[in-house]
């Protein structure tokens, strides 16, 4: 199943922000894609991107949830 697509939707209007490590809130900016190596091949992951207006740090909460933060493979799939 090569070419899978993991697609997440933009946040709803009830929660357009996520906590930032600086103590402020990071606001939703847009959806961004990333190729991720999974057990069955490469999947395109489209996930929400947030940016803090205070510290200017960007973050992808779904990367943390999927355990692909700062890498492009799931644990156990590294070559």
Describe the structure.
This protein has 79 residues and is mainly beta. It has one domain (4-66). Helix content is 8%, strand content 44%. It has one helix spanning 61-66; strands spanning 4-7, 17-19, 25-38, 41-52, 58-59. Strands 1, 2, 3, 4 and 5 form a five-stranded mixed β-sheet that branches. A hairpin with a 2-residue loop joins strand 3 and strand 4. The longest helix has 6 residues, at 61-66. The two termini are 18 Å apart. The model has no long low-confidence stretch (mean pLDDT 84).
* Order of helix and strand elements from N to C terminus: EEEEEH
- What overall geometry do the principal axes of the alpha carbons give? elongated
Number of strands: 5
**Alpha-carbon distance between the two ends:** 18 Å
Radius of gyration, taken over Cα atoms and rounded to an integer in Å = 14 Å
User: What is the residue-mean pLDDT, rounded to a whole number?
Assistant: 84
> In percent terms, what proportion of residues is strand?
35-45%
How many domains in all?
1
Name the poorly predicted regions.
Answer: none
Oligomeric description of these chains: single chain
What is the helical fraction, as a range of percent?
under 10%
Describe the largest sheet: 5 strands, mixed
For this entry, give a set of tags.
5 strands, 44% strand, 79 residues, mainly beta
Please outline what is shown here.
This protein has 79 residues and is mainly beta.
